[in-house]
Each structure stands twice: as structure tokens, then as C-alpha cells.
């Protein structure tokens, strides 16, 4: 399990999640994503960040099995803080972040892409927030950046998913391509951004964040409060134990 970081020509920094079997990130993995984004932004040579994944899918959210192995609330607290830091670091990264989605993007994965600046997805990609099935809440803030308001509610309450093609119709996914062309397409787009004057691009990123109608950091933190309530009530543990008992690997 690892987060892999490399720098391509002309300032394209690549951050790759590689946590088999389904890229359900452990607590440290979320903090590592946050660190990678902050380091990218602090490096004047970085002009754009490409966030991608190896394996079956982009991201399956929090590693629930790890959380249930940890005694007390430290696993929950770590995952919640780690997700918050990762999402915040992506949003506040001084350069554009392109999320490159293959296969599934679930739960915390939607938090990652929802706070990124552009999304390119494979034609088999799908997105969803199955939190209510796990007795938790979260990432509605980020799903709201991808779908219209009533669709958000329908998806959230039902825990159903939406295809990349549908999101492309809404304009929230920039491009949908065959999986074997995904990286090529993403790097071509990244190169277009990297070719711009980095002083202007960094100013543009800050300006666009400044005119956002919703404070995504505060909004997500508000959601997390309800997750803590459900945990203190014992509801979330029931659902997570059920998930672990089924032996599933995907949080859906």
C-alpha cells in the first residue's frame, strides 16, 4: 500500500493512490494525500497536479475494516480528520488539481473529486456516496458540486450511484474516455494547463475559490458532526460490523 508521487515534464506532478484491493484508504493514506497536495502547492515548479489511482477503481472511501480493528474511537477520529485534511488540501492547493477516475469512486472518493478542479473519467466509471448504508454521513458537500440539488437528495437517501457519462451531461465531469485512453487524455489536459503562465494560473485558482458560494471546508465539517452523533449512539458501529461480517471489499 502506498501513495506514489512523481514529477513529469513541465510541472505536472502526479499523485497516484495504490491501496489494493479497492483503494479504500487507511487513516494514514488520507493524511498522506493531504501532505502530497500541500507539498505540491509549496513547490514553485508544480503547475498542475494529476490525482489518479492504480487498480480496479479510483477510490472506495474509508477502510472500514481497519476502522473496526482499532479499539475505541481513535480509528473513527483518524479517518474523519484525515478525510477533512485531504479534501481541504485539494481544494486549497494553489494549483489546479485534476482527478482521473477509473472504475468506482465512492464515499471519500467523491470528497476527493468534488473538491478538485476538473474530473476526467473512464467510460466505466461511476460515483456514489453510500454513507447512509454505513450509519454515517459525509461528502454530501462534495456530491453537491457534481449533481443538481434534488438529485443529490435522491442519491444520498438511496445510496445509489451515477455514471460518469451522466455527470458529463451535467458538466461536472469534463471528459469521458475509454479506460485505455484515460491517462493519455488526462496528461494532455494537464499539459495544456501547465503551458500557461503559472503566476496567472495560481491567481486564477485563488480567485475561483474566493467566489465559491459555499465554504466547502465548513460545510463538510458540519456534516461530520452528525457522523459523530451516530457513532456515539452506536448506530454506525452496527452498520460497519455488518459490512465487515459480509466480507465485502466495496463500500456499496
Automatic annotation (TrEMBL):
Transmembrane in keyword set: no
Alphabetically ordered keywords of this record: Lipid metabolism, Lyase
Classification via SUPFAM superfamilies: ClpP/crotonase (SSF52096)
CDD domains: crotonase-like
Pfam families found in the cross-reference section: ECH_1
Family stated for the protein in its record: Belongs to the enoyl-CoA hydratase/isomerase family.
Protein name: Enoyl-CoA hydratase family protein
